[in-house]
Amino acid sequence: MSLFWIVIRHLAEFEAMATSKKVITREEWEKKLNDVKIRKSDMNKLVMNFLVTEGYVDAAEKFRIESGTEPDIDLATITDRMAVKKAVQSGNVEDAIEKVNDLNPEILDTNPQLFFHLQQQRLIELIRNGKVEEALEFAQEELAPRGEENQSFLEELERTVALLAFEDVTNCPVGELLDISQRLKTASEVNAAILSSQSHEKDPKLPSLLKMLMWAQNQLDEKAAYPRINNISTAILEDPSV
Amino acid sequence: MPTASAAPAHRPMDLLDRLASPDPDIKLKALREVKNQIIGNRTKKLAFLKLGAIPTVASILAEADSQLADGDVSIVDKNSDYYNNNIIIQSAAALGSFACGFDAGVRAVLDAGALPYLIRLLSNSDEKVVDASARSLRMIYQSKLTPKYEFLQDKNMEFLLSLLNSESENVTGLGASIITHSCETIVEQKSLCDAGVLNKLLSLLDGSLSQRDASLESMAALFRNNPEVISKFLGPENGRALSSIIGLTKDRYPRTRLLACMCLIVIRNSSSCYLKDIGIKTKLVYLLLELLDDPGQVGDEAPFVFSSLITEKEDVQKLAFEANALDKFLNHLQNSQLHPKRFQGILLALADMCSKLESCRSRFLSMEVLNSVTDALSHDSADVRTAACICIRSVTRSIKNLCAGYFMNEVLVVPLVQLLNDPLASVQVAALGAISNILVDFTRGKSTFVQCGGVKQLIQLSKSMDSAVRLNALWALKNMVFLADDRFKQGIFMEFTASLLTSLICDHDACVQEQAFAFVRNLIDGSINSVEYVFAENGIILDAVRKQLESTSKAEIGIQGMYVLGNVASGNEFHKEAVMQQLLSQVNNETQSFIIKFLQSNDSRLRTAAVWAVVNLTFPSSPGAFCRLVKLRSAGVVPQIRNMVNDPCLDVKLRVRTVLSQAMTFGDGLS
């Protein structure tokens, strides 16, 4: 991403002259920032990439109309992908599996880890709903064979089945499996697999760009004092405390 | 607690009944459920397979396909078309899943005759039907069990091109998969190239992720061992192709990087004029070592690609050594949950690293990984066991450590001997390879090996039905008797018996014959006592040696046989006379004596071996030497040797001069 290289170049410039910490005033800094030309269309692509990857299909559609930026993927496929994600998030794992298989049967056939995690999530949902017998049967018939195929699956399965041993699952050592975060984790794993199967990157570019920004600022801190962005959500330049 | 599930999963048996239902709705739902039950689930695939579900699904597909075909002309029933299309999509997906990573499933799908139907469906007008069939076919074409696609037959090439030119990503991917699966011969490579397939594949490199990967893999199939296709493609006007492949080694996706590396290595290994510079070789080494860290399939395959990069290439092995490849592989070996495929690959890569460079072997041994490799000898997977043997064979090439007796210990030898009982011949052969090296142990005697019953095992295996096993068992025995003491040899010979040895000398496999000869050669080398072995049971061994030498056309057998006779001729008068008898028994016949034939051979090693025997027969201090010299002269042997005084091979020349100077000591009456 070109923005990143611009920052790096600036860094290198500073490095060349920095023996003691250089102080850069707001005027100097803003002038430098103004010299950096970033094309509007690149920014738009970045936004579109975020909307598509995260699955905001309505927003993406509106943004397409307003900005004229074409998404690099058929927007209809986002709807399908989001339906899968939503199904997992709301605990309808079986439904999610069927939807993934309709989208592309290869995804779960060639991705044993994801398949295991979905089955594990199914088991978790059964336990959550107090369907003990069904849960045991499911663990035995569907999950145990996977554990035989793979040692780490077996360990995860044992952890999950342990949920059944506790009266008060919220306070047991494996209680976090019942947490909503476990659903989100599984959902994002499915989401990533579907994106990969559509030859699309599984992570949006924007967050990694922001990470690079933070990294670059940290590097720069050692060389210079300058107006810094401390709050990413406002992106306000804050004067150095000199 | 009362449990109530919204839609309980059907048992496989019930689903099978529902598949037979005349109601299209029930049938369709059942198909979809079968599909959803088997995807990702090997156990279920097997369960359905055993119930005979695959032929049922295949016939549903066939029926729906033919109804659809009829429907175009007669029935105008939107509803039935809807069902037929969906039934086709679901059954194609189910068949593809049965064939995915499951050999028994592929076989059943093929046996059910589904392949031609799926291929026909590629021309269907419904995009979803085409996609489902193409996906399913791609699964089927990933299996080695699937019959080869015959590019050169009828309109097959035309059809393949139509696949590659398709708009659908799945269909172009299928085209590339078919090439990867079926392109083997030079003729096939060339005709695909002439049909313009390479340029099409090149354009797919700019396509989607899956198209790029499929294209790289099939390019490798077109390039493999075919310098002509490579130079045609990468020639001066097409430099862009090579640089796009090199560019993909930096791709974001690990699988693409791996396949790009693989493609480059195939080019380098098939055609020596590309990718010669050290920069790209080093880059490939580092790239592949990095890919090893991938937790999935890419990491499992990376060591195999790495092996293909370094095998037989000492310079690249050195680069890899300098890049700390050994440490990297060893780190991975510490992981107790290694996937068998990755385990196998790493062991083979280590074997290649240690195949030539002593520095690698020393480093390997100093890191004490031999234990992990020894553990691998008892791994559940036969591939891992085999790879561990191959790795040990490579490491035990270290003469320094062999001499130090480093390898002759129970920890290593006992599991290796146990592998001689392995149910698979390929494992036995690999174990024999490792044992052969370890048995070249000069110092310690071979006691550890004998104590754990190794000798009996080897002799047993020399009777195996599998000629590769016989060959390698003999090889190990040959190394075992090399420079061994008399008592040890006596023990082995008693166990072996002259008749078994004779039958191996007369084996129908020439390579086994050669090893049998080499074994006898080592057995009787050394003391006069050991020469006696060839005279056991009325000299059947010696007779067999002669018969083979008379009939063989293989230089290697001649060489070993002549050394056997040479070693016998180094014995006492009786031994020497016996050799004379074998050499000259044939002279009265019309045919040429084999020793003359060998002396005139183009192979200098064979000439050397033949002259050696004569040197030993005419050694002046033995009483019958003169008499033998006269006989050899009249049989034409000495005159032939006289013609060889200026032999281009120094070895031969030296022995020839020895014979002639020995003859001189008896005066000049021989010329």
From TrEMBL, chain A:
SMART domains: CRA, CTLH, LisH
Protein name: CTLH domain-containing protein
One Pfam family cited in the UniProt record for this chain: CTLH
Domain CTLH, first and last residues per copy: 77-134
GO biological process: proteasome-mediated ubiquitin-dependent protein catabolic process
Organism this protein belongs to: Manihot esculenta
Cellular component, GO annotation: cytoplasm; nucleus
InterPro entries: CRA_dom, CTLH/CRA, CTLH_C, LisH, Ubq-SigPath_Reg
Automatic annotation (TrEMBL), chain B:
Pfam families: Arm
SMART domains: ARM
Residues in ARM repeats: 113-140
UniProt keyword Cytoplasm, yes or no: yes
Location in or out of the cell: Cytoplasm; Nucleus
Keyword line: Cytoplasm, Nucleus, Repeat
Primary location class: cytoplasm
GO BP: proteasome-mediated ubiquitin-dependent protein catabolic process
Annotated Gene Ontology cellular component terms: cytoplasm; GID complex; nucleus
Protein name: Uncharacterized protein
Organism: Manihot esculenta
